[in-house]
Write a structure and sequence with these properties.
With about 325 residues, the protein is of the alpha/beta class. The protein has a domain of about 110 residues. About 50% of the residues lie in helices and about 10% in strands. The strands form three sheets. It has a seven-stranded parallel sheet with strand order 2-3-4-7-8-9-10, sandwiched between helices. A two-stranded antiparallel ribbon has the order 1-11.
Length: about 325
């Protein structure tokens, strides 16, 4: 099986032998690993000044960097962050990666259209709108969902994207920004519509949110994504408990402790990786990753320490002949 086929098998909770699939939402340490700036961190102002020939070279360099990351760290999937972030550039990047790798890797892009935790400058105004203009907010979200599905339909083609990662964060470490009742009113119906629409178009759906999701876990599961990421241990999410409750309904992705990856000892990192494998692997339907991403400033050695455990211990037994 190719890495893509193994990733899809995990999303569909089918039995696997051999190595547990692995990927990261983003691997930002490309400068340390390859001596190149991550595509997301490249200067848009410079892009605007480029001739088309230079832009094409830039696109090819970004595609090669995504592929080099997947090859070196054995990722089964590539999360494309087009820069500039336009449907046209996303399609070009998909084509360039497929041209070099065929169907070897599962390809995904951002695809959320629901309300996330607002930033500090918007939090007060958003909170007031929830009370004063609820129908306006709902209409806004409905419009976002419709636009996202129209974009997905336009992108749909053989050899194109395999799926979308829905990366609106709903929770703090202490719990959701919205109460479960408000979440059921302002997010869940639209997340369900978005997920259903993507699935109807033939895409796979991975729902990501950090923080303590437990008060809204049942609602997230009810929207029927193929997988849930990141099952954040910093938010007190217990992978074993989520597996017990919902492992028969969707694939789980996570949950090596990102804070530990940043500041912990090798022994602590290994223990977190080992625990994620021990609780996620039984019965299949599991993809190994951190509880967020490999972000700027994280020691590359920490990621390599985590991968060492995965390579040695993240293996299903081979089927009996």
């Amino acid at each position: 099986m190719t890495p893509r086929e193994r990733f899809i098998a995990a999303l569909e909770r089918r039995p696997l032998t051999g190595r547990v699939p692995h990927f990261e939402l983003v691997f930002f340490l490309t400068m340390e690993a390859f001596g190149k700036v991550h595509p997301s961190h490249r200067n848009y102002g410079q892009w605007l000044q480029m001739e088309e020939q230079e832009r094409d070279l830039h696109r090819r360099d970004m595609a090669d960097l995504y592929i080099a990351t997947a090859e070196r760290y054995e990722h089964s999937a590539i999360f494309i962050h087009p820069n500039p972030d336009t449907p046209g550039e996303l399609s070009r990047m998909v084509d360039l990666i497929r041209e070099r790798t065929d169907d070897r890797y599962f390809l995904m892009a951002h695809g959320d259209a629901t309300f996330a935790v607002p930033n500090g400058t918007e939090m007060e105004a958003f909170s007031c709108q929830l009370v004063e203009e609820p129908e306006k907010l709902k209409a806004q979200t409905a419009g976002w969902v419709q636009s996202a599905l129209e974009r997905a339909a336009a992108l749909r083609r053989p050899g194109g994207l395999d799926g979308f990662a829905l990366c609106a964060d709903y929770c703090f470490n202490t719990g959701p920004f919205l109460s479960p009742a408000k979440f059921a009113e302002f997010v869940t119906p639209y997340l369900a519509e978005l997920t259903r629409g993507y699935r109807d178009l033939g895409y796979y759906v991975i729902k990501h949110t950090d923080g303590n999701i437990m008060p809204i876990l049942d609602q997230l599961v009810q929207t029927k994504p193929h997988a849930l990421h990141s099952l954040d241990p910093q938010g007190g999410v217990d992978l074993a408990e989520v597996k017990r409750l919902h492992g028969h309904e969707l694939c789980l992705i996570g949950n090596v402790h990102c804070g530990m990856m940043d500041t912990g000892t090798p022994e602590q990192i290994q223990a977190s990786a080992r625990a994620a494998l021990r609780h996620g692997m039984p019965g299949g339907g599991y993809i190994f990753s951190t509880s967020n991403c490999i972000y700027t400033g994280m020691p590359l050695a920490s990621y390599e320490c985590m991968l060492k455990v995965w390579r040695e211990e993240g293996n299903y037994p081979e089927a009996a002949s």
